[in-house]
Specification:
about 160 residues, mainly beta, Metal Binding Protein, Guanine Nucleotide Exchange Factor, Chain A, three-stranded antiparallel β-sheet
Length: about 160
């Protein structure tokens, strides 16, 4: 299996990540800047990537957004869920953030309601995984140089499996 296929599987199918620090279930907490919204993740984070797309850069005010996916059943708000505001950044893709301080909290998807997108910036604990690659590098900030050795993809890696 080639490197692009391995990265694709991790990004799209939630395969066990080669950069996972621990395979044991763990509690990972997160919160917004003002502390009004708090949440817990009890399941495995999968498909961690550094996304350089224009929307992620603008939504996070940074060179890129590090994010992963988690099963909705493994994610729960412990405080302040009513303070969430959401923005449909592309059809069926909603970025949810704190209405008080603006911190990005989660993304939710009409096409996959069983998954929550989790930006790492609001995590209070070590998520136990590290990004596998950089995606949407074709639209990265011109003032930022990627200096690590992670694989880079101009878009999200295409599926090596026909029809996927």
């Amino acid at each position: 299996m080639g490197r692009a296929h391995t990265v694709w599987r991790a990004v799209h199918e939630g395969a066990r990540l080669e950069r996972t620090m621990s395979s044991e279930p763990r509690l990972v907490r997160g919160s917004c800047l003002c502390g009004s919204i708090r949440y817990e993740v009890t399941g495995a984070l999968r498909g961690a990537v550094n996304c350089h797309c224009t929307m992620c850069r603008k939504a996070h005010g940074a060179a890129f957004r590090t994010r992963a996916a988690v099963r909705r059943g493994d994610f729960r708000f412990t405080q302040g869920e009513s303070l969430l505001t959401r923005y449909e950044s592309s059809p069926g893709h909603y970025r949810c953030f704190c209405s008080r301080c603006g911190s990005p909290i989660v993304s939710v998807f009409d096409a996959d309601p069983s998954t929550v997108g989790l930006p790492f910036g609001a995590l209070d604990d070590d998520p136990g995984v590290r990004p596998l690659c950089h995606v949407h590098v074709a639209s990265k900030a011109p003032w930022y140089d990627i200096t690590d050795e992670l694989p880079r993809f101009d878009e999200v890696p295409p599926s090596p499996v026909k029809g996927r």
